[in-house]
Fold this sequence. Notes:
By secondary structure, this protein is mostly helical.
Amino acid sequence: RDRYARMHRVLLSWAAPVIFLLLIVLFFVIAHYLRPLHSLADSAQAIAQGKLETPINDSHHQYETGRLQNSLFLMQRKLTAYIYEMRQKQNVLNQQHAELQAAYDEAQAYEKKKAKFLHDMTDRMAAPVEQLCRSTNAICQNYPNLSKSEMTTLQTDITQGSETIIELLDQLIKDPASS
């Protein structure tokens, strides 16, 4: 029995250091195999934060870690290309927006000029047209009762109103910008 107790103590005294040594070796072996995974995780985190130029360390492994590294590298390249393409499209859209805004502003300016021009022409033509209408209505309604001098006056009014309207229309046709 002593012999077994002694053997038991020897085994326990040897087992604890061996187990401790085995744990240390396992720690370093596991750390060695997980180091590339930690590196990839750090790279993925940096890429997720928008740092697309983050280098991805080569793991020199062919299995899961190597495949993961290759996939992450491919994703990084595609994301970089996609963002570059989006920036190019954004630049084109900004340029087109600026051109459209300039064209819109120019169209608005022409619209204001047109409205002012039409308003001015309407104001300038209103009196001659009114005079022309008044005179022709007077002739149509009172033709049998009009004297020769009244008829001459109305005819002169019609001629003057017509000439004024023709002059304004000539100005409009020849040089609409100066009217």
